Amino acid sequence: MSAKPVLQLNGLDLEKMAGTAEALKKDSVLAKFQFRAKNAWISGGENRSTIKDFYGAGAEDTSRGKPFVFTNGEPPVLLGDNEGANPVEFLLHALAGCVTTTFVLHAAARGIRIESISTELAGDIDLQGLLALDESVFPGYEQIRMKMDIKADCSDEALDELLRFTQKHSPVCNTVCRPVPVVVERVVNR
Amino acid sequence: MSAKPVLQLNGLDLEKMAGTAEALKKDSVLAKFQFRAKNAWISGGENRSTIKDFYGAGAEDTSRGKPFVFTNGEPPVLLGDNEGANPVEFLLHALAGCVTTTFVLHAAARGIRIESISTELAGDIDLQGLLALDESVFPGYEQIRMKMDIKADCSDEALDELLRFTQKHSPVCNTVCRPVPVVVERVVNR
Fold this sequence. Notes:
The structure is a homodimer of 190-residue chains. Chain A is an alpha+beta fold and 190 residues long. In chain A, 30% of the residues lie in helices and 32% in strands. The first copy, chain A, has four helices and ten strands; from the N terminus they run E-E-H-E-E-E-E-E-H-E-E-H-H-E. Chain A is globular and about 60 Å long.
């Protein structure tokens, strides 16, 4: 009795990866996903999200027994008590993760073996915007910079090309660097 | 001996809030903040961020003894093992938190007492973009919808007006709905 070996690269099952791509090529509706979160305000700058279900690959996902729970907070200088990282910091975490995962995925598709990736992010923001002290100040991040230290079994040129490709295809990176509509609706209780 | 009472609204110290606004009006350089994150790849779609220091109000912040640590993961349908929420889900958490905190802050500034805020978010995304199966498909969220259930001691009209004001001033909301440059640089090891 011999088990079939699982071909892995960068921690990804190459056969499953190719199968997913093939299935989506045949039926592009399977690529439509909806991600969700619920959030409840606690007090001041503290609030908490629960994240569990989502729709994708043609069905509601049932793989998660328990929700993920994350708490936003603010540091004392922003009137909080460090109850959690703050929302603009969580955005940096989302961006770092998405660029990294997109890079690792397409590296595997190209047969590039990644040894390590370490990233430092910094985002500049002028809080006159948030506080509405000057309506000419943009309230979002002015710019976000990422420095990625990547070790892999390929040339520097191949890494640079893959990094450009990654920026073009990372969902969070494109949600940040291009405009995405946010529709906010208030539930009216009658 | 009598302690001066702390005037609070929505969990925010109103005196400290007014003081912060006054200080920033006098010296707008104090409003310049830089937030940061470090991220390290683990395997496949799993990676981890640490968030601790930032610059703001004219100084490096020293209020956090330990870093916040967050793990990105992917569900099985996206080749992972639910090691954590995934990056596009963390972005929803960041957005929910920022809109909520911006709303609560400006409610306090207007003397509106918030009783509760519960928010549901849903974001649509076509993974043909991430997977580079169709270059015409936008890789980011197509749209994000937020439904906010808000209870407060003011009229529906005042809530609607405050919600429009919030959308215009929330840092994460504006980082999403308007284009923000992301500069990715590879560290070259010599």
